[in-house]
Amino acid sequence: MKRITKLVGIDIYTFDELPEAVKELFKLAARARNNAQAPYSNYHVGCAIVTRNGKVFSGVNVERCSWTQTTHAEQNATDNMVASAGPVSLSAIVVVGDPANQKISFDSPPPLPPVEKRIKNVGDVCPSCGHCLQIIVENCFKATGEYNPDVTLWGYHSGEFYCTTIGEALPMPFIPQYLGVNYTKK
Fold first, then answer.
1. Nearest CA to 140 among 81, 84, 82, 91?
2. Which of 50, 71, 123, 168 has the most CB within a 10 Å radius?
3. pLDDT (tens digit, 9 = 90+) per residue, 13-22?
């Protein structure tokens, strides 16, 4: 038997180290998070996405008492994008989530947490779930229509920011191209 493994890589940043455009996406995601409807989990999530051509969309989690009809923030933002612009390609996704009673604002740099609470491994972050990663991957394609594993996924945890790619977060994607779908040929 032969076993193939893949490690997931994430990069850690402070607010000051973030590119200006990413700071703005974090601010948008945090503002959107204020509109989350999550009375059951009390976990509010905001998402901001930017398309390859620079258009920005946001979304929040919307819970319903029949849990299977709950909408995740990444799904909401992606659906808003498709409703407004059609099936276009993503270039970056920013997700901000925390318990409802935690106020999050990035109008000024958040303080770094104590050393013992800083991100040390992948298990210290709260990444997008598999459901959302599949939704995201559907709109990760190059101008040629082929899959783009380099779309960036940004997140926030206790004063630190992290970044990975869709290819790292979802190493074995089921992509539209497997079904002969190419969104660039409209």
1. 91
2. 50
3. 999 999 999 9
CB 23 within 8 A of CB 106: yes
- Measured distance CA(163)–CA(153) in Å, rounded: 6
Does 159 have pLDDT greater than 90? no
The secondary element (H helix, E strand) that includes residue 118 is: none
Owner of token pair 């969309």? 57
Q: What angle do CA 176, 177, 178 make, to 5 degrees?
A: 90
Is the distance from CB of 33 to CB of 60 less than 8 angstroms?
yes
- What is the structure's pLDDT at 186? 54
Non-local CB neighbours of 83 within 8 Å, separated by 6+ positions: none
pLDDT tens digit sequence for 29-78? 999 999 999 999 999 999 999 999 999 999 999 999 998 899 999 999 99
Q: Which two tokens stand for residue 99?
A: 């318990």
pLDDT at 123: 84
Determine the Cα–Cα distance for residues 38 and 92; give it in Å rounded to an integer.
25
In whole angstroms, how far apart are CA 53 and each of 25, 49, 143, 159, 172? 15, 12, 11, 30, 26
CA–CA separation, 37 and 40 (whole Å): 9
26 neighbors 96 (Cβ within 8 angstroms): yes
